[in-house]
């Protein structure tokens, strides 16, 4: 059985920090120019981006300090592959049903809120499907 190890390298950490700094700079730029409306409980999208950038930088540092060698075998990779296929099939069916429902009853929700629900729902469905397939196999 082939076993692959997933290790967090310094190159991986550098890309995480680059992304965090990019989010902070983008948020600062939006704040300086006064662009963006309130978002996610924050006064503006700029403040939210700064918060997410700081949070992702802190989480990157914590994950690097607590790095563990995760052993992933072929079975786990296969389960992840099948879980992602099933999840996105469920996502496309749900989006199709929402499209049909919108033509029957007009759905009035902000696009940002709609997308945040879709993303969160996709993640929850993936975790549920992955755990189900893991127990099944």
Total beta strands: 2
In round numbers, the mean pLDDT is 86
Described by the principal axes of the CA atoms, the overall outline is flat
Distance between the termini: 16 Å
Query: Main β-sheet: number of strands, strand sense, barrel status?
Result: 2 strands, antiparallel
Percent helix, as a range, is over 70%
Low-pLDDT segments: none
Tally of DSSP helical segments? 4
The percentage of residues in β strands lies in: 5-15%
Major sheet: order of its strands?
Answer: 1-2
- Tell me the structural class: mainly alpha
Instruction: Compute the CA-based radius of gyration.
Output: 19 Å
Order of helices and strands: EHHEHH
Which properties best describe this structure?
4 helices, 2 strands, mainly alpha, 137 residues, single chain
Q: What can you tell me about this protein's structure?
A:
With 137 residues, this protein is mainly α. The chain has four helices and two strands. It has helices at 10-33, 45-65, 74-104, 111-136; strands at residues 3-6, 70-73. Strands 1-2 form a two-stranded antiparallel ribbon. Helix 1 (10-33) runs antiparallel to helix 2 and helix 3 (74-104) packs antiparallel against helix 4. The longest helix is centred in the middle third of the chain and has 31 residues, at 74-104. The model has no long low-confidence stretch (mean pLDDT 86).
Briefly, what is this?
With 137 residues, the protein is mostly helical.
């Amino acid at each position: 059985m082939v076993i692959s190890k997933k290790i967090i390298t310094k190159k991986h950490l550098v890309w995480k920090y680059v992304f965090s700094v990019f989010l902070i700079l983008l948020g600062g730029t939006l704040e300086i120019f006064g662009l963006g409306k309130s978002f996610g409980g924050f006064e503006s999208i700029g403040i939210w981006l700064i918060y997410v950038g700081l949070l992702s930088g802190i989480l990157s540092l914590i994950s690097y300090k607590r790095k563990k060698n995760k052993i992933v075998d072929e079975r786990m990779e296969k389960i992840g592959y099948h879980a992602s296929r099933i999840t996105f099939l469920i996502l496309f069916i749900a989006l199709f049903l929402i499209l049909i429902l919108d033509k029957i009853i007009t759905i009035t929700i902000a696009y940002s809120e709609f997308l945040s629900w879709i993303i969160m729902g996709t993640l929850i469905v993936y975790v549920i499907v992955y755990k189900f397939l893991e127990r099944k196999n």
